[in-house]
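TICKET #2291
ISSUE: user wants both folds in one file
ATTACHMENT 1:
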Amino acid sequence: MFEQLTASGGNVLGFKIGENITSEDVRKIGVAMSDAISEFGNVRLLIEIEGFRHMEPEALLEKLRFARDHAGEIERMAVVSSRTWIKSWVKIGGLFTHREVEHFDRSEIEAAWEWLRG
């Protein structure tokens, strides 16, 4: 389950990820991102993770395909979560993507939006 956050606008997109994410969810997020990339050339992305536990294997493959095809168009990414293990994964992911990637605690969501827009 996911929802697009209402603070999204222009090339800054935000999504809240719930307990489970399906390949259809990943496809819909990809469509929203592709539309913004087509219009603006790049995107800045906020992912708020709330209770994430499971991703369907097909969803993971879809996510990896999208990341491969569009990694150069994601200018910045903020990951908002209170889970410590996610903070570690964000740091590791930033090493491989060569993009600006930051982790923010859930209490810092406004700072995450400001960082993306800055």
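ATTACHMENT 2:
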Amino acid sequence: MSTGDRSYAAELSGRVSGAGRRFAVVAARFNGNVTEPLLQNVVACLTEHGTDAKAVEVHRVPGAWELPQACARLARDKRHDVVIALGCLIRGETAHFDVIAHEVARGLGAVSLETGVPVAFGVLTTETERQAVERADPKRGNKGREVALAALEMAELFGRLNSG
């Protein structure tokens, strides 16, 4: 996602606020060497943009497969402005990657549509572990920051829409 020479993150940085907002973050434990930096970058970005640290609830699930289930439960409670899903799928030698990636994406999309609560998609789907590590690294890809900014933008949009 880029606009000209500037990245999506650069375009939104400083233009969105988490003040007064609540976020739930659901992070998969599987491929933790990737999901933990994603999680740290998400929380750092949310708090950097005014979200009270106490307003960021973190929950962990075993793997990407469980993300839609946990996100659905949290979204149905309507206590959060946005639910953020974090996971990492790395292609292997079987069709397992394709099945899980498709179902996780479909499931998270369904949660958002069915509950009316935005679900920010922070699930990396990469060909190699190296690609995944690069995307989670705050000095290179920093996809955690990008998904947090998307969550902040959606919280603001839904806040405006809900207030009339």
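RESOLUTION: both attachments delivered.
EXTRA DETAIL ON ATTACHMENT 2: The first strand starts at residue 2 and ends at 3.
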